[in-house]
Amino acid sequence: MNKDNLTVAVVGATGAVGREILSMFSERRFPAANLKLFASPRSEGAEIKFEGGRASVLSLAPGCFEGVDIAIFSAGAGRSREYAPQAAREGAVVIDNSSAFRMDGDVPLVIPEINGGLLDEIPPGRIFANPNCTTAIIAMALKPIHDEGVVKNVVATSFQSVSGAGAGGMAELEQQLRDWPSPARPEVFPARILLNVIPQIDVFLDNNYTKEEMKIHNEARKILAADINVSATAVRVPVMRAHSISATVETEKPVSPEMAADAIRAFPGVQIVDDPYPMPIDCSGRDDCFVGRIRRDLTGENRICFWVVGDQLRKGAALNSVQMAEWIIRRHG
Ligand code: A2P
Predict the structure, then answer these.
(1) Which residue in 16, 64, 196, 245 is a FRET match for 165, CA 20 to 30 A apart?
(2) Residue of minimum CA distance from atom 23 in ligand 1
(3) What pTM value is reported for the model?
């Protein structure tokens, strides 16, 4: 990998996260000399314009990652399972935004501010995983509290925006806004999302949690490398962008709301908003995660409650991947 002549591929470049990655590249002056943009065969040849350039969309094919230094995948778990190992074989370091490899033992699951040191070594499979968007946002608030008092249990409810379901999710809410009050025909979501909330994200599992809820539990344990239980309820809300999470955290050692706020203030990438509290409308398009409403929980010892909001297209996906790529370039370029 030569940092002065980097070739970077974005798989899923036409999607909600892919487009955000391209805008992060120009915002952060990402040092890619060549960009290869991939999407489905439907988009082949389409031109994507981004600040600082334009490129034609390519289709995935054998050999398409030859000469690619870093490949960022954001085209769903199916595509990642099929093509990420190929990209790695053809020599790229893969940063995968999907759930395909996150829980694999030999695939590091990384939030640079929390466990970025894992990027110092390229694993044998050459694949790094980017966490689930809700997990990334709550983990940014949990880590400083964990360092202070060792988090044991978390009860969390997420309020997840429609862009978490990709470009199609945003299009569905926009269509329902235009059509209102005509009846809606939901396709992306299991029910009408306009003027509604839906307590289901992804499919139900045998334990009556959804796949999304179990991702938060499993991935938080892996990222924080701790014996933490997270009982989550993931809810889709008619918000365009940025996820919010209400959480109650039980720690091994007492952590007062003031101690938690100080620890969060001192942690990179996360801020306290107490005038009056963070809301998705204010956090959209922002890099940091924002914590507010920190208070002592009334139901037991060593428990505090907080509210955290983050733009899931940024810290939950594109920003985190680009930060990972920047770290890899710094260490290995
Ligand atoms: P396309 O726009 O051609 O369908 P989102 O999460 O916003 O729905 O975006 C999904 C991304 O994954 C899009 O860029 C989409 O491209 C891409 N994608 C979907 N199917 C494939 C495929 N078979 N090969 C490559 N990219 C795909």
Answers:
(1) 64
(2) 40
(3) 0.96
What are the C-alpha distances in Å from 278 to residues 263, 266, 272?
18, 18, 8
CA-based R_g, the chain, Å: 20
Q: Are 65 and 92 a contacting pair, CB within 8 Å? A: yes
39 in contact with ligand 1, CB cutoff 6 A: yes
The catalytic residue among 64, 146, 243, 289 is: 243
Residue located nearest, by CA, to atom 8 of ligand 1 = 166
The atom of ligand 1 lying closest to the CA of 76 is 12
Q: Is 79's C-beta closer than 6 angstroms to any atom of ligand 1?
A: yes
Q: Based on the residue annotation, tell me whether 305 is a catalytic residue of this protein.
A: no
pLDDT in tens, 17-33: 999 999 999 999 999 99
Alpha helices in the chain (DSSP H): 16-27, 77-89, 112-115, 133-149, 167-179, 211-224, 257-265, 280-283, 319-332
Return the ∠ at Cα 189 (arms to 184 and 194), rounded to 5°: 45
